[in-house]
Amino acid sequence: MTRALPLPGPGLLCVIGSVLASMLVAPQALRASGLSAEPGSFVRNVPITRDRVYREALANHPSILIQAAQYRSRTEEIGIQRASYFPTLSFDLDQLLVNTPVLGLVTPGLEPVPITAFIPKLNQEITGFGRRRNAVRAARLALSSAKWRLEEARLDVVWNAGIAFERLAMSQHLYEAARENERAAKVHLEQVTRRLKKGLAIWPDVTKAEFYWQKSVLAVVQIRDALHKAQVDLGFAMGLKSFVPFMAAGKTVSTFFPGDPERLVQFALEHRPLIQAFEKNDRSQESLVKTTFDKHLPRLSAFATGFLLYGVPPSVSGAPATYGLFLPTYQMGISLSVPIFQGLKIVHETQSERAKYRSDLAETRLARIRVARNVRNVWFDLRTQEQTVRFDRARLGNARANRDLIEKKYDRGLADSVMLIEARAEFVSATENLIAARYRYRMISDELQRQIGLMPSFSPSFGGERPPPQKGAR
Hints:
Elements: H1 10-32, E1 46-48, H2 50-60, H3 62-82, E2 88-98, E3 113-127, H4 131-197, H5 203-238, E4 246-248, H6 261-271, H7 273-293, E5 299-310, H8 314-317, E6 326-337, H9 345-411, H10 417-451
Parallel strand pairs: 1-4
Antiparallel strand pairs: 2-3, 3-5, 5-6
C-alpha cells in the first residue's frame, strides 16, 4: 500500500518519524513471522563426499536388495530344474486288510488278514527327449537376465544418488549467494535510511530498498527450504531410513562428451545392462516355448519298487515257514510314457508361451528404441546447456560491470537508489542463473552417462584418445 505524503510542514516531520519507527520494527516483525534470513537446520550438518554417497547408496538402497533377492531366486530355479537329472527315492507305509497278499479279494469262507506293507520306491528318468535340457537352459538364461537387471538397478541407484548430490551442492551454492545478497540488501537499506535522515534521499528510495530487502529475505527462506528438501532427496537416493542433514563436500568430477551422438547410441545398445537383461529374457522365453512343446514327446524312465509285507501267515502266502510272518518281494523295470491326448492342453500351453515370447521380443525392441531416443535427447540437452553456461557467464560479466558503474554513479549522486537496486538485482539474478546452469550441466552429464550404461568409476573408450572436455563444461 502506498501512502501519500503531505505538503511540507509540521505534519511531514511526524510522517517521517513514523516511517523511521516502522523501519526499525520491520526486521523484528519479519523474523517473528518466520521470514528469517539466518540459516536454519534441524541438527548439525554432516559433510559427505560424492564417493561416499555412491558407497552408501549401493549398500543400503532397497532397489538393489530387491534385484539381489530376485537373482538368488533365479539361482535356486536352476537347481530345481536340474533335480530331474537325479533319481527320486520315496518310502510308503500302508496298513492293509486283505485275505490274500496279492489280489486282496475276500473269498467266501476266509477271514480278512491285517497286513502292514513297507514299500520303498526308486525312480530314475532316463530321457525326456530334450525337455530337461531346455528347462535348465531357460533357467540359466533367466538367471543371466536377473544378473543384468541387478546391474541396471545398481546403475540407476548410483546415478540417481549422484544427481541428488549435485542438486544438494547447487542448493548450497545458491543459498550462500542468497545470504550474501540479503546482507548487501540490508546494508543498502541502512545506507538509504541514513541518507533520508540527512535529507539526501526521498521516501520512495526507502520503500524500494525495504521491498528489495524483504524480497531477498524471502529468497533466503525459499532457497534454505529447497536445501533441506535436497537433503531429504539425497537421503532417499541413498536408501537411508532417517533424515540426515548432509552437506556436499569435495570436488565434482569433470564431465565430457564426444561429438557424435550416434557413437553414444551404439555404445548404449551394446553395453546398457537393461538391454542385456531384455535380450537374455527373450532367449529364456524361447527355451520355455521349446520346453512346453516337448511335453508332446514320450518319457523313458527306470523304476524299482520293493514290498515287505508283515502279518501274512505262511499258510496264506505259501512262502517257506522260515519267512515267518514276513513276505518280501519286489519289482523293477523300464517305463515308456507317451502322451496321446490331453484335451489339446499342451497345444494351448505352447501357443500361450509363444505369444509371451512375441510380447517379450516387442518389449526388447521398444527398450532399444527408448534408450536410443533418451541418449540422443540428453546429448542435445547437454549441448544446449553448454551454450547456456556460456551465455550466463557473459551475462554475469555484463551485470557485474553495470553494477560497478551504477555504484560509482550513485556515490557521486549521478544515479538514484532505484537504478542501483535494479543493477544489483540483475547481478544477483545473473549469479544465480550461472550457478544453476553449471550444476544442471553436471546433472545432465550424469544422466547421459547413465543412459549409455556407464558406472561413475570409469569412462568409455570410443576409439582413439579420450575426448577433451568442452569449453564451459565445469
